[in-house]
Amino acid sequence: MCAGFSKFGFDDDVAFCRHLTQNVGVAALPPTSFYGKSDEGRRYARFAFCKKDETLAEAVARLEKM
Q1: Cα separation of 66 and 34, whole Å?
Q2: What is the DSSP string of 51-65?
Q3: CA dihedral in degrees (5, 33, 55, 1; nearest 10)?
Q4: What is the pLDDT of residues 13-36, one digit of tens each?
Q5: What is the residue extent of each domain of the chain?
Q6: CATH number of 2-64
Q7: Rounded distance between C-alpha atoms, residue 41 and residue 19, angstroms
Q8: How far apart are CA 56 and CA 50, in angstroms?
Q9: pTM of the prediction?
C-alpha cells in the first residue's frame, strides 16, 4: 500500500522513510526506487504487510502516535 505523507512536513520519500525507520520504528520503502522517473513516487511511502498480526498491530500503534 502506498500512502501520502505531506501532512507530516516531508517532501521526499527517502527522507520520510528514513525518519519512520529511525524515529518511529516502522519500516517503509521509498517508491522512487521502483520508478524510472523518480518524481512519480516521491510523495508516497510504500508499506508491505507480510508480517505477523502482532507486528502489524504494533506498527499501527506507533504510526498512530505521529
Answers
A1: 26
A2: S-HHHHHHHHHHHHT
A3: 60
A4: 999 999 999 999 999 999 998 888
A5: 2-64
A6: 3.90.1150.10
A7: 17
A8: 9
A9: 0.82
